[in-house]
Amino acid sequence: MTRLLTHRALLLTLALLATALLSAAVWRSAYVQALGPVSERGTSDLELASDRLVTQLQRFREFAVLSADHPALNALHWGGSRREANAMLLRAADRSGAALAVYVDARGKVLAQSGDGLPDWVLSGAAYQRALDGALGLAHGDGPPGIDRAFWFAAPSFGVDRQVQGVLIVAVDLARLEQAWRGSLPAVFFTDAEGEIFATNRSELLHWRKTGTQMRAPDGTMRAVSVARPGGHTIWVQRFSPYIPTRALRLEIALPVIGMTGTLLVDVLPAMRLAALQAAVVAAVVLFFGALLWLALERRRTLALANAELEDRVSARTMALEQSNSALRREIAERQEAEAALRRAQAELVQASKLSALGKMSAGISHELNQPLMAIRSFAENGAAFLERGKPERAAENLGRISDMAGRMGRIIKNLRAFARAEPEPVRRVGLAAAVESALEVLSRRIDEGGVTIDWQRPDRPAVVMAGDVRLGQVVVNLLSNAIEAMAGSDTRRITIRALHDDAAGIVRLTVRDTGPGIADPSRIFDPFYSTKETGSDEGMGLGLSISHGIIEGFGGRLRGENVAGGALFTIELRQAQELT
Fold it and tell me: Among residues of the chain, what percentage have pLDDT more than 70?
């Protein structure tokens, strides 16, 4: 008996060991395979980050090259006005975003500058010497006062004898460039030829250096980094920074244009989890079938013992076993049928989702084109009336407006097509007062027919916001139309429109207030297909405010609706456009 137990324990141990080895092999294979897509995505992100940095620096490189031969700078060598040259460099630096622009002669004497603070090392560095040789110089290091890290471009200026007469030196604040992409990607950093991290989207990594298998912090502290290479990939394992993954895929790309090497660290924990899941599934399947096999062997042993002891019960045991096998086959068949039903249900859900999206898009397109069509109808009726009154010039004016509305419909269709491709119309400077007055002009006939009084006052100063003129006009027209319809049963019909500046917040608010019955349920007014209009109404699809809400949010603004004393108040908040310089 003891020998039998020992044999069974050894067999069970070998089975568990084989399962563990198989699971480990599956995990290793799945992990290496999962690193492939991670590497591809990481390579794409690294190339994107590298191209973005190079492209940002390209602007300052072109500024240095193109401005080096400016007449105001060339005139300095012949007694020209230094004040005029300083002003030119200051304007150019402000427009380009450069931190400092300095023009020196071939001996290193400063002839003009946009500001003070040229470090001494720049004139003794390789970038300045390369410019004296007639080529564009590039360096990085300390910047002007207040700037820790800067890229320096040195562009030569040639005299009439084709010899270098001066050098325009341009400094770029690297921290200012990093603000646009900090945290937008996995941990990415750019190292110089000495291995120092000079630019990164993780500020805590600045000025670290890789020394062998260790990382040296700016204070000289050494941190251990281990490297693994599964399937040809380079995996970093570190515990010195909580802001980068503990285990990360390391990708590199050389950037000879700026003398840097780009490095990206991508977290491999999702790949490890996926590999662990696959290994767990394999282990569970093996253990499941192993358990079944073990149970079957145990059952055979038990039956054999029972057969030796009670041969007359063999038939009954055999029948019970056959019944169990039949039940197992029925269960397998039922599970297969259930899986087939599940796949059919998933296919039906996908088809239903497609039909729902198609219905929503059709309703959205009809709503987008409804307002211009109503305006065309209004202008056509006005034009016919003017022709009957013998006023062809006014009729021609209405025909011109119809043409404008047709063009507007074309722009709307273009916006809808761009929306379908997930390519929204770019936001630009739009005059808010012009959008309001254009909407009032489109709805003038409805305003007159409804007996509505419009209280509109242009703001004291131009209200210029960041938006799309067509889509902003659609939102204003929709709010005014809703207000006119809401006041149909009111004794007093008045719409008050105001444009208010909030310079502290950098926004402009447009308020539309009516004297209607107010909003029945303010919490649901922006829900799609929610409407308080009668069922069957041609204009009651309940999409207007939902679409308007999405348009305003697409501009980076807000649309709010609330009840106030004597009616409803809708407020549009948009970013105030910066003044042109």
Answer: 87
* E strands in 37-192: 100-105, 110-113, 137-141, 150-158, 164-173, 187-191
Superfamily holding 68-174: PAS domain (3.30.450.20)
Looking at residue 569, its pLDDT comes to: 92
Tokens of 560: 């709010």
What stretch of H or E contains 176?
helix 174-178
End-to-end CA distance of the chain: 97
**What backbone phi and psi angles, to 5 degrees, belong to 111?**
-100, -30
Tell whether pTM > 0.90.
Answer: no
314-388 and 432-442 helices, crossing angle to 10°? 80
Residue 201: which of 270, 247, 146, 265 has the closest Cα? 265
Q: Give me the pLDDT at residue 342, please.
A: 52
Could you read off the pLDDT of 71-125 as tens digits, one per residue? 988 888 888 888 988 888 889 888 888 888 999 988 888 889 988 888 888 888 8
Q: Give residue-wise pLDDT tens across range 389-406.
A: 888 888 888 888 888 778
Asked if 562 and 568 count as a contact pair (C-beta separation under 8 A), the reply is yes
Q: Please say whether the beta carbons of 169 and 153 come within 8 A.
A: yes
> In this structure, which topology does domain 424-575 adopt according to CATH?
Heat Shock Protein 90 (3.30.565)
The answer to whether 31 touches 232, Cβ cutoff 8 Å, is: no
Interval 153-177 mean pLDDT: 88
The domain segmentation of the chain, as residue ranges, is: 1-36+182-287, 68-174, 424-575
Nearest-10 crossing angle of helices 2-67, 269-309 = 170
Nearest to 482, CA basis, from 432, 537, 536, 427: 537
Tokens of 179: 């603000």
Least confident of 98-107, 464-473, 512-521, 536-545: 536-545
Task: Please state at what angle helix 469-486 crosses helix 544-554, rounded to 10 degrees.
Answer: 150
